[in-house]
Fold this sequence. Notes:
The complex is a heterodimer of chains A (180) and B (266). Chain A contains seven helices and no strands. With 180 residues, chain A is mainly alpha-helical. Chain A has one domain (36-172): Cytochrome Bc1 Complex, Chain D, domain 2, CATH 1.10.760.10. In chain A, α2 crosses α6 (144-155) and α5 (101-110) packs across α6 (144-155). The radius of gyration of chain A is 16 Å and the shape is globular. In chain B, α2 (8-14) runs parallel beside α10 (161-172), α5 packs across α9 and α10 packs across α13. Chain B folds into two domains: 36-54 and 158-265, Cytochrome Bc1 Complex, Chain D, domain 2 (Orthogonal Bundle); 60-145, Cytochrome Bc1 Complex, Chain D, domain 2, CATH 1.10.760.10. Chain B has 13 helices and seven strands. Chain B has 266 residues and is mainly alpha-helical. The chains are: A mainly alpha (180), B mainly alpha (266). The A-B interface holds A 1, 7, 9-15, 66, 70, 72-74, 83-88, 112, 119, 121-122, 128-134, 136, 139, 141, 175-180 and B 41-44, 47, 173-180, 184-185, 188-189, 191-199, 212-213, 225-234, 266.
Amino acid sequence: MGGSWSVAALFWLAVTASSMTAYAAGSPPEPIAELAPFVVTDGIIAEPLQGRIGDAVRGRAIVANRQLGLCLLCHSAPIPEERFQGNLSGNLAGIGSRASAGQLRMRLVDARQLNPSTIMPSYYRVNKLTRVTPAQQGRTIFSAQQIEDVVAYLLTLRDDRGALASDAIRRIRSPATENK
Amino acid sequence: MVFIWLLPATFAAIGTEACAAEEAANKAGNKITDSRKSGYDFMSASTQALQNDDSQNPAMLWVKDGEALWGREAGKDKKSCASCHGAAPKSMRGVAARYPAIEKKTRRPINLQQRINLCQKDHQHAAPFAPETQEMLRIESYVGMQSRGLAITPPRDARLAAFTQKGKVQFEQRMGQLDLSCADCHDNHAGKKLGGATIPEAHPTAYPLYRLEWQSLGSVERRLRNCMSGVRAEPYPYGAPEFVELELYLAARAAGMKLETPGVRP
């Protein structure tokens, strides 16, 4: 089982192996008294949080990191060195040509404003939560900078051929086999 | 799921689609069609083989120790489980399949571990086993195995309905920093891949079970605590009323499914 920051309880060895690099992509957010303000207009957050400039290289490392980004638990992405990518939601390949920065930012910050029943966690929200573990109370999943880094990376994913290929492979494989 | 016939109110409150389908089939006099799957059905053939063969199943090590514990005298009266209950294969058959159940004195539901602890306290006058200790897992797995192959059968007890309903609310309550409920994954995304792991339907069909991830036997509450940590929620303590309520709901949801105890899971 990983440390208190990890979700390794669910995701065993594949995750445990990568936990040594858990925060290589950035430290966990500090507790914050108040979120950086942002404006939602027509399902879009047009302005970067705190005016920060995203770094796509850092963003890729965050997305690839299962303790920090968590993205690959549910999504697949064109990050070939990461095995055991999830399929609870869509493949991120090509997302940069399907969504704008403002749309991506909205979905990362608080996707439940768009769809209350989505399983996409709200990466920049601290209210309306229940029984949050003490180590995480008052903390967002991502810092404002990490939100911008991930947005910058996702915007670089403009080719969805990888997604089509991996979805085809998934259809061929039996869904009921373990991928240990 | 006979108890549902006796408790229409319970059915309305906790009925799952599977229950509804089953009831409709019963009314029509048809054979039950059941699409529910045990975690076993999501496992690879090699892990299934480990569970199938008692000489390979690592959980049998705990069961064997549990058999020895069953006959071990404890407490000031030097009584063993066997002193009162006799041979477990006879006296314990079906017991694990009906827990949690209402405890007479407190009129509150208790799970099998809590039942064992009460026996130790009231009849053996011995110190209870702490939750999730090796001794508790040994005796629970030995008692549990006596119900192997039997259907999960929640008691026909109207007093359970309110607690079971609270368990359903728990199951559907989003929690933790990730703000996810049991139902989000295990009702709505079962069979899909969370990272490398296939999400099962969360039926408590084989506890206590040997989990390869743990390299140990563990109880259903250990598993529930894992999921709570996973969504970054503060887990309830072992034996918490919330867990017993959740276990009641899981048992109602899995009623009629066969117990595999002691199981193996990835």
